[in-house]
């Protein structure tokens, strides 16, 4: 899938940020559930990136990264803002109204599939039969988890809508993952590209929120704003530069291996905090899903 050797994940400069991203993102799935209880999801997302954007520009300035992107760079930033920082999160936040956070995290483990397929289409990266086989096994596992979810009837019980929304988020995130690794994206400073992308995404988020949910709603809960700060600073400013750098180093397909660790963290939190109810069906689905992801992401270049 990429020229990076299979053992690249073991290198400290890749392994350490890889683990850090997984730990932080694994926690954000649950934090999001508290962000959709008090305010419309669209405004919660707008607040998150309104807080993250100036912090990302500040990081770029501290790192002395040039902020000029050029016309092609700004067009790329608009696309990333639309897909990653608007589309992806608007789909995800709404999916968690219908599915437990751990299940949505499991579904996002399949980000490797569109990442690899789009990487082949747009970047010319190869996809192996073993990768496809592993992906099919993982999809079968996720299907079992979703059947279990439907049987337990979480939240308002609209599991199908939750699945559709999660898939929309996966596709949006995948487009952003792959396009930022194109020649234009690689030629730009990562933090500067992300700062502009977040700015454009925030503008789109505000327009979408005002259009769909009316004027802004400002909650008074300290827990809400603490969660927003965690999502904005740790879950966005810290993690996105690290993750996108990993994508550039080892390719979008193998970088999605991160989703396996994220799932472990998210499912543990969902079990102990949300009271996720395990069954034989769910356990079989989790084992199949993890095994398929590992099989797919260990696939060597064709």
Structural class: mainly alpha
Individual helix count: 13
Report, as a whole number of angstroms, the end-to-end distance.
7 Å
Strand tally: 0
Low-confidence stretches: none
Describe this structure in words.
The chain is mostly helical and 302 residues long. It has one domain. Helix content is 76%, strand content 0%. The chain is built from 13 helices and no strands. The protein has helices at 12-35, 41-62, 70-95, 101-108, 112-123, 129-152, 159-179, 183-186, 190-213, 222-250, 252-255, 258-272, 280-297. Helix 3 (70-95) packs across helix 9 (190-213) and helix 6 (129-152) packs antiparallel against helix 13. The radius of gyration is 18 Å and the shape is globular. The model has no long low-confidence stretch (mean pLDDT 83).
Please outline what is shown here.
Helix content is 76%, strand content 0%.
Keywords:
single chain; about 300 residues; mainly alpha
Lay out the secondary structure.
Layout: H1 12-35, H2 41-62, H3 70-95, H4 101-108, H5 112-123, H6 129-152, H7 159-179, H8 183-186, H9 190-213, H10 222-250, H11 252-255, H12 258-272, H13 280-297
Helix pairs in contact: 1-4, 1-10, 1-12, 2-3, 2-9, 2-10, 3-7, 3-9, 4-12, 5-7, 6-13
